[in-house]
Amino acid sequence: MSDEDQNSRFRLLYETYYRSAVGYVVGLGFTREEARDLAQEAFMRVFRAMSTFRGGGPEAEWAFVRTTVRNVVLNEIRSRSRRGRTVSLETFPVEPDLLPKDPWTDGPPATPETDLVAEQEAARRKQWLREAIAELPESFRGALLLRLGGLTYQQIAKAMGITVDAVKARLREAKKRLRERLGEEPTGLDWPAAPGEDDDDQEE
Amino acid sequence: MIKKSEWTAAYDELSAAGRRELGEPPSEEELLAYERGELSEAEAARVRKLLVYYPELVRALEPFPFPYEGKPGDAGYLSDEEQEQDWASLRARLGELVAPTSGRAKASRDVQRTSEPVAVWLRRWRISAAAAAALAVLFAGLLVRTQRDIRQLQQELREPRYNVEHRLLLPDGQRGGTLEQPPIPLPSEADYLLLIPALINNPRFPDYRLDIVDLGTKPPRVIWTATGLRRRSDDTFEIWVPRSFLKPGEYRLVVYGLDGGRQETLATYTVRLSS
Q1: Is A181 on the interface with B (CB under 8 A)?
Q2: Chain B touched by A116 (CB under 8 Å)
Q3: Least crowded by CB within 10 Å, which of A163, B3, B125, B149?
Q4: pTM
Q5: What is the DSSP letter of A50?
Q6: Which residues of A154-193 are buried (b: 16+ CB within 10 A; e: fewer)?
Q7: Which of A16, A19, A47, A59 to mutate to probe the B interface, most B CBs <10 Å?
Q8: DSSP state of B240
Q9: In the predicted structure, residue A8 carries a pLDDT above the cut 90
């Protein structure tokens, strides 16, 4: 393939797939700028590999671009994990806080005088919840952490190698055990409905 | 009422502790092999354990949207102007490699290329030649081994058949129950096995392929592959396997749907043959 042909083909690949690549990366929780940067990195790799890529039609080209973008993204996520940074959890499936006032005192928001007490109480509550989750059996804890990590039931099923129904069953069991351990309803999280009931969450 | 910030704090701390305890996230190769069902059960269990603390890696394995259907205003939507800006930026990052495809630009690029140090080109040529030689050796080895396996299989298929056992195989994750499912046991005393993998709610494809992956090797190795499989009206396939072809151990059957250049994993079936 001549340089001119290669350039034309690369431009065509860019025109066809670049928007999808950016949309995919943004969908993973990266910012627009990060997504554009990563998509460019992927297309640089595509260009450099084009001389060795013998084609096979649009499907093969699409698979080639898709694999390259995915590898760049996976690599970036792994690098960030090593550096201790994570992708923002914009899809965190937690209900918004509805209470306009302090939920413990049922009074107005904390004043400077009450800050220390409030901080201690908040720390105690966080530890209490963390310990309750940590004490769950591994399979229930795993499903719950993945859910808290912003994954859909389908994604959790894929990650754990089980069915969506099994994921929901584990989450329901985790909820039941948390309720017993905490002595109160573990509200504030989007739990799956009981079998036979409609899920509010229509993600599946 | 448990507040969002409390769930978030608990999650952040448990996640950080899990990462510290388990270490590095799985590599790209491990993840893709896990997605294709090519890892041994022990390796897959390790990846599953890690993924609990690296959910962003799970998201990255999601299907890629094409064509992109975003609208102006969506976070991932690029305007024509932005796409052009990125093209200019990409060209700048690639330097002169991507030039306008006019004759003048090509001539300019040719002049630049011939002026590059000879040593650089020589080094590139050597690396390419070494890589090509290594690949040639690898493919030759694979070809010899495949032909040997095929000859062995053909020879065994010509032999008289006795004591045939058949097994209906339901896909992994769809055999009922909520906990992780054990491999499907295969009868070890049979001379031949008639394996009947069943598909459940999978779309139809023009063609199908089945691989048998030996989970006992590191890394797991495809020991047999068959294309042109016929999907029967009851959504099953029939695979004849000589018992002697399989050593005692665990194997994974992977059924792929093929459509032109596209390939989709439809189901996996983990089986165990005892000694």
Answers
A1: no
A2: no
A3: B125
A4: 0.52
A5: G
A6: ebbbbbbbbbbbbbbbbbbbbbebbeebeeeebebbebbe
A7: A19
A8: E
A9: no
Kindly state whether B7 is in contact with chain A, defined as any CB-CB distance less than 8 angstroms.
yes
* Helical (H) or strand (E) element with B123: helix B118-158
> Are A166 and B178 within 8 A, CB to CB?
yes
Residue A67 contacts by C-beta under 8 Å, 6 or more apart in sequence? none
- Residue A97: predicted pLDDT: 43
For chain A, positions 28-47, list CB contacts with chain B under 8 A: 28-29, 32, 35-36, 39-40, 43-44, 47
> Could you tell me if B56 lies within 8 Å of chain A, comparing CB atoms?
yes
Beta strands in chain A (DSSP E): none
Q: Are B162 and B244 in contact (CB under 8 A)?
A: no
Taking each helix axis as running N to C, give the angle between helix B80-93 and helix A3-27, from 0 to 180 degrees, rounded to the nearest 10: 120
The CA-atom distances, in angstroms, between B65 and each of A58, A202, B69, B178 are 15, 19, 8, 31
3-state class (DSSP) for residue A1: coil
Contact A159 B52 (CB under 8 A): yes
Helices A153-160 and A164-182 cross at an angle (nearest 10°) of 100
Lateral strand order in the sheet of B249-259: B184-186, B262-273, B249-259, B207-214, B221-227
Q: What is the ipTM of this complex?
A: 0.73
A40–B90 CB contact, under 8 Å = yes
Torsion sign across C-alpha atoms B137, B138, B142, B148: positive
Other Cβ atoms within 10 Å of A25 Cβ, number: 27
Q: Which residues in A lie closer than 8 A to residue B48 (C-beta atoms)?
A: 142, 159-161
Residue A107 pLDDT: 53
Chain B, 122-141: which have a CB under 8 Å from a chain A CB? none
Mean pLDDT of A142-162: 92
CB-based contact (8 Å) between B94 and chain A? yes
